[in-house]
Amino acid sequence: MVKARKYVVRKYFEGVPKRSDFEIVEYELPPLKNGEVLIKTEWVSVDPYLRFCNRNALVPYDQFSYQVGIVEDSKFPSYPIGTRIVTHNGWCDYSVVDIPKISESYISGNLLVVTYKLPNLKGLSPSLGIGAVGMPGITAYFGFLEICQPKAGETVVVTGAAGAVGSVVGQIAKIKGCKVIGFAGSDDKVKWLEEELGFDKAFNYKTVDIQTVLKAAAPNGVDCYFDNVGGEMSSVIIGQMNKFGRVSVCGSISTYNEDPTKMAKATILQPSIVSKELKIEGFIATRWANRWQEAIAQLIAWIQSGHLKTNEHVTVGFDKLYDAFVGMLAGENKGKAVIKI
């Protein structure tokens, strides 16, 4: 028997999550059955979408957060001992995965259940498998390229620009020859975006008038907008878009800790959408699940060539998962927030 630990959400919560909302439970894993593998967790991801999911239901965080782990025992020949694997069993230190069952779930259309062998990262840290070459990087790759379809010379705006997804979107936009403007939540992040990641201009949204600085930075308007935050900021940016502009809606992190019944109202978008014939589309990265390997290969190539820079905010220790999660929601991270177990 293997003793394991996992985080359990005690209750539905509103506002900023509290430590008392979570409990660490110890339990014994049963012996493996045919088709199953035992995984020892090495790296765990914390992402904004977890808070979004928990707004309306008790989300089992040990199932909805990505992890990179290593197979310690196996009853499935294609996943022998020593295989590194990416799964959804994140907020736990050991887990059992039924590989055929996961495959059947995927084939039947449950694309939120994603399990696959960690690709050859060619010397890069395995942690990137839940970061720049994992779900966040894949989200940036398809969400930006497929929906915004950027053209060289166009102006791109990214909110949440210093986060795991936004920082990759901005760099892909530069690779594609675009002018890139980012909004982030601190002067330190602004400096990082401009001086290290190559954004043409970045702003601390907490200290500037967004409408004024955007008009100055993009006097000819905005062609593509990658929206991570929602709220009034997005209304202002969409109001400055050009004819036939494209908006890729990835999230609305500005609202995730708000009481759903007391959310601030934002300026209506319909006049801009209609008069400028805008395309606004939301997405989930698993829409392109059958093409993930394409994205992973390209992201690795860009990292190795120096065109895509990665940064990780690493927290060490299973007991620090809560701190890493709340810190990520508070914007403490530059790039991807990960926990080393």
From TrEMBL:
Annotated InterPro entries: ADH-like_C, ADH_N_2, ER, GroES-like_sf, MDR_fam, NAD(P)-bd_dom_sf, PTGR1
Any single GO CC term annotated in Swiss-Prot or TrEMBL for this entry: cytoplasm
Record GO biological process: prostaglandin metabolic process
Domain Enoyl reductase (ER), residue spans: 15-339
The protein's enzyme class: oxidoreductase
Main location: cytoplasm
Source species, domain of life: Eukaryota
SUPFAM superfamilies: GroES-like (SSF50129), NAD(P)-binding Rossmann-fold domains (SSF51735)
Keyword Lipid metabolism on entry: yes
GO MF annotation, one: 15-oxoprostaglandin 13-reductase [NAD(P)+] activity
Catalytic activity: octanal + NADP(+) = (2E)-octenal + NADPH + H(+); 13,14-dihydro-15-oxo-prostaglandin E1 + NADP(+) = 15-oxoprostaglandin E1 + NADPH + H(+); leukotriene B4 + NADP(+) = 12-oxo-leukotriene B4 + NADPH + H(+); nonan-2-one + NADP(+) = (3E)-nonen-2-one + NADPH + H(+)
E.C. no: 1.3.1.48, 1.3.1.74
Compartment list: Cytoplasm
Keyword field: Acetylation, Cytoplasm, Fatty acid metabolism, Hydroxylation, Lipid metabolism, NADP, Oxidoreductase, Phosphoprotein, Prostaglandin metabolism
UniProt similarity note: Belongs to the NADP-dependent oxidoreductase L4BD family.
Assembly behavior: Monomer or homodimer.
Name recorded for this polypeptide: Prostaglandin reductase 1
Organism: Euphydryas editha
Lineage: Eukaryota, Metazoa, Ecdysozoa, Arthropoda, Hexapoda
